Amino acid sequence: MDGMDLRREILRNVILCQGLEALARKPRLDAATSGPKLEYFLVAGVNSAWPFYDLADRILTAGRQPDCIFDTAYDAQTASLRNRLGGKVNYGPISLLIPVITAQVLEYIDTGTHEDIEAILARTGEVLRNTTERDVESMQEFIHLGYKVSTKNRERTPRLPVLKGRFTNVLDAGADFPNNHNVREMSQGYPYSLQVYRFLLHNLEGGILQASALIYQLLLAELQRHDIVADFIAVGLYLVLSKHPESVLFT
């Protein structure tokens, strides 16, 4: 893309991947008598995108991975709450996208390309290993904010995990959450997100929303978690948009 500004592309794709994922589930969300509404996801996706623009700008300016990238998670989750109810509806995509986008910008700095999806995902492990104690502290703050957002107006006080001072990087801190699907997704190189990406690329004849709805049902049968499947689809959509910024995805 001539004159492409990677920061703007990332901003756009962060918004679109979250909005499209929710739109693909519109019938289910509309039929639900309780729980998050479609508009919560759309507003949250727009609100949370600017911190990712800032992250990309910081990486490009430094020419390397900054000393802290997971401060983006706290900033994005805080921003996502504007003008809506619904709690932490995009908690998963925010955390999952940070290593992906960091790897994408680093790949662009090193090679001049930002659309080699396999190379980007292969680099996420290095990104996680290169995180710092500041990242661990920021991740702890993000997790605590998530508890606060999801439990406000409830009487019980949850037991909050303590990561600061115990781990030197985010990859090691993931050991505290061995059963967390998103932690495993990050630590294993995003296998489900890559599966979604490949599925979407080969099933676009009826449009990306139809393809997203289909892979949603397939993964739900395996994982049995609506929220986790939605998180992986959002990342998969981000990868498709990054790979094909000009392709017709709505027919």
Principal-axis shape: globular
Instruction: Give the H and E element order.
Output: HHHHHHHHHHHHH
Give me the secondary-structure category. Answer: mainly alpha
Biggest sheet details: none
SS field, number of helical segments: 13
How many beta-strand elements?
A: 0
Percentage of helical residues? 55-70%
Number of domains: 1
Radius of gyration: 17 Å
How much is the average pLDDT?
93
Catalogue the unreliable spans. none
Strand fraction equals under 5%
Distance from N terminus to C terminus (CA atoms, Å) equals 22 Å
Overview of this structure, please?
This protein is mainly α. It has one domain (6-190). Helix content is 67%, strand content 0%. The protein is built from 13 helices and no strands. The protein has helices at residues 6-24, 26-31, 38-47, 50-62, 71-80, 91-111, 117-129, 133-151, 170-173, 181-187, 191-201, 208-223, 226-243. The longest helix has 21 residues, at 91-111. The chain is globular and about 50 Å long. The mean pLDDT is 93.
